[in-house]
Amino acid sequence: MVLLLLVMVAAISELQRRLQRPQAAESSPAPASGEVAKRPSER
User: Fold this and answer.
1) 21 phi and psi, to 5 degrees?
2) Residues 6+ apart with CB under 8 A from 31
3) pTM over 0.90
4) Residue 35 has what pLDDT?
């Protein structure tokens, strides 16, 4: 159950960040969820 929650939260957060910063997705098509969380201010 906990794993499902973590996976859902990670997927939702990645989708939100990709929508907020489409330029970041272009530079890195498949960034790790951890990498994206490390630098939230980077555009």
Assistant:
1) -125, 80
2) 24, 25
3) no
4) 57
